[in-house]
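Please decode residue identities from the backbone states below.
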């Protein structure tokens, strides 16, 4: 039983080192290797590991997320006979709870029927589970004298909704929010894994539920390796300010070391990686190295870095579209090798779609859309409203303008 850290900033080869070690262990034909990554990266990590292997195959190694690990453990050990509650089921359960508790609510009574309220409430409930927050803690916070009336009412309503939701689900359902807590409970009574080594990669930090799972994995496996995106200076620092760029992984490191110390598990010397393999030129390497420093250092080379100022966002996008077209036509770059990154997608999305379409640039915009805005949902909802409200003018035209009727826009106008 041991804990080891692989430390390095982005592009220093943490994932490649993990994969090299997994393949080397796999080649011996003994033991079991588990590679745990965030849920959204499992498919890509599995493909990368297969590509990384000389035989283009993985036999003993497994690529899992915490959720898939839980599914595997539950399938092997069994679980209490309850109905799994997915995202849609959770929303329906919250709708029922809100209707039952409507008369007892103060702050949320007038907004509970608004679009998006249940979705946001669902995310809040998920965070309560992830951080082991109990309804009694919310009530205790609501009683603080320093809070405003609105905050007090909001916390009180959340406590009532949360308690009612727990009461509703605990009898017949298992919520996805409880999965990791149940996993930690099962692991705590499990026998040690035979010759199993675990790598955790791609995480910036962990929730309390995930820490509980990791604590049990430390006790059950021969070694747990955790990669954290930070530099050596931050890792070895005795203290970091909460405003420091690597504060979250630094906090995760401290928590993991504390768990290892409490459980009597040895901590191996960390592996520090400093050379950036992702950046293709010195200017980008210099930018990555000094971007988060409290001081600036000039780089004599600027190849690969350009700063362009445009008066409007439309002109920004048009410049980017022109640059993309030039790279594709003159340098043979493929569209899939180009990315446009923004921290304000909701501001740029509409203009991006229109301008890139004008330039005949194919694109995939990674942005979540409300299902209520989908033409099919609009058509079905409007059609049902027509039947319920006796074909009101606005319902009929919502149906006709959904874009899925046999009429052209000219005929509709």
């Amino acid at each position: 039983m041991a804990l080891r850290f692989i430390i390095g900033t982005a592009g220093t080869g943490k994932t490649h080192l993990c994969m090299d070690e997994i393949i080397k262990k796999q080649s011996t034909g003994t033991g079991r290797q588990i590679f745990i990554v965030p849920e959204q990266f499992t498919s890509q990590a599995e493909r990368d590991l297969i590509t990384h292997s000389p035989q283009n195959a993985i036999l003993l190694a497994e690529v899992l997320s915490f959720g898939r690990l839980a599914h595997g453990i539950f399938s092997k050990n069994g679980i209490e006979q309850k109905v799994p509650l997915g995202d849609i089921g959770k929303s329906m359960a919250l709708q029922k709870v809100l209707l039952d508790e409507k008369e007892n609510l103060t702050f949320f009574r007038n907004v509970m029927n608004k679009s998006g309220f249940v979705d946001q409430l669902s995310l809040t409930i998920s965070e309560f589970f992830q951080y082991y927050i109990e309804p009694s803690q919310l009530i205790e916070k609501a009683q603080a004298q320093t809070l405003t009336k609105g905050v007090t009412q909001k916390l009180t309503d959340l406590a009532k909704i949360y308690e009612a939701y727990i009461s509703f689900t605990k009898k017949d359902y298992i919520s996805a929010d409880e999965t990791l807590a149940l996993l930690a409970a099962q692991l705590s009574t499990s026998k040690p894994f035979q010759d199993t080594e675990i790598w955790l990669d791609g995480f910036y930090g962990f929730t309390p539920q995930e820490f509980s799972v990791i604590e049990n994995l430390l006790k059950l496996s021969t070694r747990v390796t955790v990669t954290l995106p930070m530099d050596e200076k931050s890792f070895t620092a005795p203290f970091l300010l909460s405003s420091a760029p690597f504060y979250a992984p630094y906090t995760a490191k401290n928590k993991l070391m504390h768990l290892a110390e409490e459980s009597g598990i040895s901590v191996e010397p960390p592996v520090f990686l400093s050379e950036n393999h992702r950046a293709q030129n010195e200017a980008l390497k210099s930018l990555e190295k000094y971007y988060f420093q409290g001081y600036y250092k000039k780089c004599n080379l600027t190849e690969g870095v350009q700063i362009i100022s445009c008066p409007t966002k439309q002109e920004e996008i048009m410049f980017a579209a022109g640059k993309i077209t030039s790279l594709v036509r003159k340098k043979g770059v493929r569209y899939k090798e180009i990315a446009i990154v923004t921290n304000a997608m909701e501001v740029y999305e509409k203009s991006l779609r229109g301008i890139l379409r004008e330039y005949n640039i194919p694109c995939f915009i990674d942005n979540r859309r409300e299902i209520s805005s989908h033409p099919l949902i609009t058509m079905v909802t409007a059609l049902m409203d027509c039947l319920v409200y006796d074909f009101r003018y606005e319902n009929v035209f919502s149906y006709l303008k959904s874009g899925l009727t046999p009429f052209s826009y000219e005929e509709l106008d």
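Observation: The chain has a mean pLDDT of 88.
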